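Re-run with default settings, no changes from the original entry. Doing this only to confirm the output is reproducible before filing.
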Amino acid sequence: MKLYAYARYSSDNQRAESIDEQLREIGDYCDRTNHVIIKQYCDYARSGKYDSRPEYERMLKDCITDSSCDGVIVFDVTRFSRGGEMGIVDSVMLTQHNKVLVSATEQIEGTDFAGKIVKYFKFLMAEEDITKLSNNVKRGKRETALACEWNGGTPPLGYDVVAKKLVINDLEAEAVRIIFNRVASKITYTKIIEELNSLGYVTKTGNPFKKTSIFEILNNKKYIGIWEFGKITTVKDPITKTCKTYESAPENIITHENACEPIVSRELFDKVQIVRKVRKQSSRAKVDYRLTGSLVCSVCGSPYVGSSSSSHGKRDYYYICNGRKNGCTCNNRNIKKSVLEDAVINNIIDHVMSGGFYEDLIAIIENYNKKTDHTSVKVANDKINNQIKANISRVRKAKEAYLLGVFTLDEYSAEQRKTDKHCAELQMQIKSSKLININKNTLRQACKALSKRINHANALDLVDNIIINHENIIINFASSMIDEDSNGGADGSRTRVQTVIDITFYMLSATI
C-alpha cells in the first residue's frame, strides 16, 4: 500500500528527536510489510487531544483527495489522536473514503467488527491515559505546594530556588524593599521606576522595570512569607484554543503562613495595600454618577451618560443622551443629576414600602406562568434541542467539506464560530423559558423584609434599567430584586427566597 506517514510529539518538554524515532520505526515496519511511504507530515509540540494541528489537518485533507494514497500510517494510535471521540470520527471518515489507518506498533488494520472495536477501544484508552496523566500532574503540583516546595517556573524577584525552596537573594531583595518603602511613602510609580532603573536594578527576567512589574511585586504575598497555590484556574477552550483564567473557589486554594522567609514586614505590606486602594479610588471620577449603565434613551436607544457644564463660576452636573452627545439627531432631554437620582431612588423606596407591591408581583408572576405552561415549555425546548443537534451536525459536515477542499480553512472556521454563537443563544432560550415556582407566603415575607432593608444606599440594586422619555421615566426592576435571605416561619428560621425570572417583570413610571 502507498501511505502517508504522520508523526508528532506533544510539548516543548519532549525531544524533537522523538519525531525521527517514530519515522524510523514506521520506515522499518513498511520495509517488512512492503508498504511505501509517499509523503511525511510532522507536528511539533502539538497535543493530540485536539485536532488543531496544521500538519494533521493537511494530511487528512490530502489523503482523502489523493487517489494514489491508500491511507495513513502512524507509530501508534496516540500519535494520530488522544481525543477519544475525535479520533474515532476521523478514523471513520478515512474508512468512508476507502482509506486505512495503520499503526507500526499495533494491530489495528482489521476492517471487520472485531478490528473496529479494537481500534476504537485504543482511541478511548489513549484519551483516558492523557486524562490520568493530567490529573497526576495536577496532584503532584498540589502535593509540592502542600510541602511548600517550588512548583517550577521563574521565582519572584528577591528569591532564588535552592533544593525546591525559596531563599532570599540579597541584591534583588533590596530592590523589593525599595519598591515597598517608596509606595508606602506615597512616591509615584513613575519616580520609583526611574530610581530602580537608574540604580541598575532589573526584573527577574533581566528587563528594565515597568508599572506592570511593580504591580506584580506589590500583589505577591510571598514577600511576607505567605504561599498561595491554585488561586487562579486556567481553562483552555477546546475549539478556539484560547486560555481563560478564573479565580478559584476558596476551598481549592492552598495557603501556607511562614512558607518562606519574608522580605518585608506584614505592617509594611498592609500599609502599601491601603495606599494603593486610596490611589485607585482617587484616580476615579470625582463625581459619582450613580445611574451610569442603567439609563437608556427611548428615542435612539443610546445610554445616558454623565456630563457637566460651567456657568457664572458654577458647575452643574447632568445626565445626557450619549447618542446626542456624539452627533446623533436625537432630541431627548438632558436631566440634572441630582433631580434624576432623587426621583429614581425616592420612587423606588416609596413603591417597595407600599402595600400594593406584593400584590403586583403575584399578579405578574401568575400571568407569566399562564402564558408559559409546562407543555409549551417542553415542546419549545425539544425544538431548540433539535436545532442544537442540527448545528453540531452542520459543523461536522463543514469540517469534512474543508478536508475535501470544498471549504477553505477560513470558511470552515467562520462556520464553526457562527454555529457556536447560535448554540449559545439557543441555550439561553432554554434557560429563559423556565416556569416560576414560588410560595406566596414566602414571597410576602421577602417583600416585607425588603421594605425594611431598602434605603438610599441600596435602592438602585433593584434596578435593571431606566427608560428616559420626554415626559417621564420608566424604571424596570431587575429580576433578582428579591433574591435575598428573609426571616420566615413560626420558629424564626431563615428561608432562602429566590426568583428565577429571566424577564423584566415590573415597571414603575415616574414623572419628573
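The chain has four domains: 2-141, 159-225+260-283, 287-369+437-512, 373-432. Residues 287-369+437-512 form one domain.
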